[in-house]
Amino acid sequence: MKTLVKPGKITEGVYMIDAGGYGSEKTTSIFVLKGSRRTAILDTGSRRSAEPILRGLREMRVDPDHVQYLLVSHRHTDHAGGAGPLLKGLPRAVACGHSYTIDTLRDPAKINAAAVAMFGEYGEAMEPITNLSRLLALNPGQLVDLGDLEVEAVHTPGHTSDHYCFYEKKEKFLFCGDAAGLLGSTTLSTTPTTFPPSFKYEPYLSSLQKLLRYDLETVAFAHFGAVTGEDAAQIIHKSIATLKEWREIAETEQRDPEALLEKLWIRRETKLEVFPIEFRRLAFSMLANGFVNGLPSPGE
Would strands 94-97 and 67-71 be described as parallel, antiparallel, or unpaired? Predict the structure, then answer.
């Protein structure tokens, strides 16, 4: 298993673009699947990600008319926020996702307010998509036909209730969005995405176990990059082990978010590579609070 963090070709038909999230490089990655008949973009980054994504498509010589799907993993602004501006530059594309994601794309006022309250200057608001013909709700397990490639929408709640991963069988490629955490590319580690108020421990764990049913040679992350190799599924196993480790620490510390924060900061500061340095302590504080609040009640 090795990490891939350089934008460009990942496998035949699969490409990575650095979407420049949170004002820095190597923080948000989106992936492009070029099928024989259609192209799909997996996630859209934040509102300001649209420009680097469109630039990346030009560098890949992708005809804008060939892009027919924006497959959005979930409703958060750093994943769905680029959909509106991208649709303006991609005339035949439709934004697709869980029905809750589509509702948020239509009316993002609530998620915009939450993003600004939680992330401050990093909480980019997204614009509403008022043309309903440019939106398409996907059912769990639904297949998106690109010609020689076919993408499955895999429902993976836990980070949010509407979260989808996207799997392409021919390439053995999985885009896991935030379902498997934040990738530490130099340490081959993951940090669970336990942000409040959406995180729920049991669905998150079940979703990770669900992903192990797929034949995987490339596991791609929204934050940031991908791992590849016949043993790529090991990164999912690492995500499961880390999640369980966090629960053990939380229980030892009597589910005190501040105590959990300090333990995580000491043990895992160097593994959280994707956010700007000045943002990482705040990120761990949110992760600790979300984790404790998302645990099952004692005794369950």
Answer: parallel
Size of the chain, expressed as the number of residues it contains: 300
Other Cβ atoms within 10 Å of 196 Cβ, number: 17
Of 15, 291, 31, 4, the closest CA to residue 177 belongs to 31
**Regions of the chain short of the pLDDT cut 50:** none
Contact assessment for residue 199 and residue 291, using Cβ atoms and an 8 Å cutoff: yes
Question: In this structure, which amino acid lies at residue 139?
Answer: N
Give yes or no for a contact between 175 and 166, defined as CB atoms under 8 angstroms apart: yes
List, in order, residues 6 or more apart from 176 with CB less than 8 Å away.
156, 165, 211, 219, 220, 221, 222
Could you give the CA distance from residue 193 to residue 217 in angstroms, rounded to a whole number?
Answer: 23
Strand runs (DSSP E) across 196-251, as ranges? 218-221, 225-228
- Helix (H) / strand (E) containing 144: strand 143-145
- Please state, in angstroms and rounded to a whole number, the distance separating the CA atoms of residues 89 and 84: 9
Cβ-proximal residues to 132 (8 Å cutoff; 6+ apart), any chain: 106
- pLDDT value for 120: 83
Phi, psi for residue 268 in degrees, rounded to 5:
-130, 10
CB 180 within 8 A of CB 158: no
- Is-above-0.85 flag for pTM? yes
Q: Catalogue all structural domains in the chain, each as residue range(s) with its CATH number.
A: 2-294 (3.60.15.10)
Q: Do 18 and 213 meet the contact criterion of CB atoms below 8 Å apart?
A: no
pLDDT of residue 238: 97
Residue 205 to residue 135: CA distance in whole angstroms: 30
Residue whose tokens read 């303006």: 88
Question: Measured between alpha carbons, how far is 93 from 54 in angstroms, rounded to an integer?
Answer: 13
